[in-house]
TrEMBL record:
InterPro entries: ClpP/crotonase-like_dom_sf, Enoyl-CoA_hyd/isom_CS, Enoyl-CoA_hydra/iso. It comes from Dasyornis broadbenti (rufous bristle-bird). Pfam families: ECH_1. Pathway: Lipid metabolism; fatty acid beta-oxidation. One of its GO terms (cellular component) is mitochondrial matrix. The lineage of its organism: Eukaryota, Metazoa, Chordata, Craniata, Vertebrata. This is Enoyl-CoA delta isomerase 1, mitochondrial. Key enzyme of fatty acid beta-oxidation. Able to isomerize both 3-cis (3Z) and 3-trans (3E) double bonds into the 2-trans (2E) form in a range of enoyl-CoA species, with a preference for (3Z)-enoyl-CoAs over (3E)-enoyl-CoAs. The catalytic efficiency of this enzyme is not affected by the fatty acyl chain length. It catalyses: a (3E)-enoyl-CoA = a 4-saturated (2E)-enoyl-CoA; (2E)-tetradecenoyl-CoA = (3Z)-tetradecenoyl-CoA; (3Z)-decenoyl-CoA = (2E)-decenoyl-CoA; (3Z)-dodecenoyl-CoA = (2E)-dodecenoyl-CoA. Homotrimer. GO terms for biological process: fatty acid beta-oxidation. Belongs to the enoyl-CoA hydratase/isomerase family. The keyword Transferase does not apply. It is an enzyme of class 5 (isomerase). The keyword Nucleotide-binding does not apply.
Length: 287
């Protein structure tokens, strides 16, 4: 439906403390993600629940995209808060096992799913608020960056950033574009080259997150921010968002197949496969 159709709805009802849903509520859960939609406020809660660290596997990415599509197509939904049901981690990023020792066809399917999620999330008509309640490296950082607003739990042990360079891989141009649009060119250039993971105080200082709040206040704050954004007419906000993001989205759409081929060529190199195997072994030792 046209974006401006939603603007005729009454303003959202106040949200309960901690963002708990009000009746009537609609739930749909799958293996990796739980979704709750409070139809009276128009706000959905999307919780990652894929232990141990919410890795963005092919299954997870597919479920995420389907969940967003369902919410986008539901005229009762105007905004979504994205968070984690697993303590201390928002998302560890792309699942390394999907990129190591697999077929060319699998790499293509996986990368197309990564693209699809970003296109849906970054281009969503809904208000998207990331309630980052744990560490969020690499692809997890991209999910947060793709939202309209980022609130992170104020814990110095939590970190966020695009650290691909540390693994011997390169963040694609659309990861880079999303990062630059949030923090500016110089900060993004330095952070990407060094593969930096920024502790929460530094992430706030750089503008990588918009606010830090105590962990116990995170969902309450996310609900308050959502209510603030939804107080505006939908059509004006949506058209402004499209204007700001369209060029970045269009760039990937125009080069999508080329981007998939580049990913396959890059990830298939023996040197890259070796780096990924070394990293996977390191993760096993940590356990």
């Amino acid at each position: 439906p046209p974006a401006w159709d939603r603007a005729t709805r009454p303003p959202p009802s106040p949200l309960q403390p901690f963002g708990l849903p009000l009746a009537p509520c609609r739930f749909f859960s799958n293996n990796k993600i739980q979704v709750e939609l409070d139809e009276s406020s128009g706000v959905a809660m999307m919780k990652f629940k894929s232990p141990p660290v919410n890795s963005l596997s092919l299954e997870f990415l597919t479920e995420f995209s389907i969940g967003l599509e369902k919410l986008e197509n539901n005229r009762a939904c105007r905004g979504v808060i994205i968070t984690s049901a697993i303590p201390k981690v928002f998302s560890s990023g792309l699942d390394i096992t999907e990129m190591c020792g697999k077929s060319m066809e699998h790499y293509a399917e996986f990368w197309r799913a990564v693209q699809e999620l970003w296109l849906r999330l970054y281009g969503s008509n809904m208000v998207t608020v990331a309630a980052v309640n744990g560490s969020s490296p690499a692809g997890g950082c991209l999910v947060a960056l793709s939202c309209d607003y980022r609130i992170m739990a104020e814990n110095p042990k939590f970190y966020i950033g695009l650290n691909e360079a540390q693994l011997g891989i390169v963040a694609p141009f659309w990861f880079k574009d999303t990062f630059v649009n949030v923090v500016g060119h110089r900060i993004a250039e330095r952070s990407l080259q060094l593969g930096c993971l920024h502790p929460t105080p530094e992430a706030l200082k750089l503008g990588l997150v918009d606010e830090l709040v105590p962990e116990e206040k995170l969902m309450e704050k996310a609900a308050a921010v959502m209510a603030q954004w939804l107080a505006l007419p939908d059509h004006a906000r949506q058209l402004t968002k499209t204007m700001m993001r369209k060029a970045v989205l269009d760039r990937l759409v125009a080069h999508r197949e080329e981007d998939i081929k580049n990913f396959i060529t890059f990830v298939s190199k023996e040197s890259i496969q070796k780096s990924l195997r070394v990293y996977m072994e390191m993760l096993k030792k940590r356990k």
